[in-house]
């Protein structure tokens, strides 16, 4: 039974059918960049879902034309003056807040309706399943911005697509369209844009209809890994802040804002 949506700051929560919760990143004017307000709303929403026994599947999508453009570039540009230890602590809190979706025992689906870039791709990777709308673009373009990867992507991306494809995407910083993402295994299905969310919700309803304990135990088994995500987060939370104070980061941000190609100097 559908219920009235709940609106938090930059996040919308809906229950369109029994057992299914849709989290919509809702900052479309900024391509659903992960603002402080959205981050706080996400923290509260995930904490609430952890204790909600009625939830059997969670869908994450974006409002407007993007899934998420990633972190707030204004904050990144202003953070270079902060000491690395303080930035490390901030980044670990940020990463862990968003990646808490991995702690949900129920299956999660990323409905990638549009661009999923940088940390935005990280959120999609943190979900168990990814479906993309035709024409959506995905990428880990950190190096093109002058930034070290974060949000667990140097762990999560190889986990999903394998080492070779992950090295290609991380070291080139290139974006891939939905069809290539499907070939790489980055997404499981590409769906026409018209009716995209309806089709994802139909799949979520199928998942929600499965035996809850069997589904949760299956998910737990699939999540067993040979290495630690937290070890990777520790590395990223130290390495990413080092790049905050570089001229290249400022250049990368300026280039994005001016819609031109960046000219990096290695400083």
- Order of SSEs: EEEHEEHHEEHEEHHHEHEHHHH
- The main sheet orders its strands as 1-2-3-4-6-8-11
Amount of beta strand: 15-25%
Give the oligomer, counting copies of the same chain as homo and different chains as hetero.
single chain
Percent of residues in helices comes to 40-55%
Low-confidence stretches: none
Secondary-structure-based class equals alpha/beta
Termini Cα gap? 56 Å
Coarse morphology = globular
Count up the helices. 12
- Round the Cα radius of gyration to an integer and report it: 18 Å
Main beta-sheet annotation? 7 strands, mixed
User: Which whole number gives the mean pLDDT?
Assistant: 91
Task: Give the gist of this structure.
The chain is an alpha/beta fold and 267 residues long. Helix content is 48%, strand content 18%. The chain has helices spanning 36-50, 73-78, 84-99, 119-126, 142-145, 153-161, 163-172, 178-184, 196-209, 212-222, 229-244, 247-258; strands at residues 3-8, 11-15, 20-25, 57-62, 66-68, 108-112, 115-117, 129-133, 137-139, 176-177, 189-191.
Features:
Enoyl-CoA hydratase, Enoyl-CoA_hydra_C, seven-stranded mixed sheet, four-stranded mixed sheet, ClpP/crotonase-like_dom_sf, 267 residues, 12 helices, alpha/beta
Topology of this structure?
Layout: E1 3-8, E2 11-15, E3 20-25, H1 36-50, E4 57-62, E5 66-68, H2 73-78, H3 84-99, E6 108-112, E7 115-117, H4 119-126, E8 129-133, E9 137-139, H5 142-145, H6 153-161, H7 163-172, E10 176-177, H8 178-184, E11 189-191, H9 196-209, H10 212-222, H11 229-244, H12 247-258
Parallel strand pairs: 3-4, 4-6, 5-7, 6-8, 7-9, 8-11
Antiparallel strand pairs: 1-2, 2-3, 9-10
InterPro entries: ClpP/crotonase-like_dom_sf, Enoyl-CoA_hyd/isom_CS, Enoyl-CoA_hydra/iso, Enoyl-CoA_hydra_C
Pfam family, one: ECH_1
Family: Belongs to the enoyl-CoA hydratase/isomerase family.
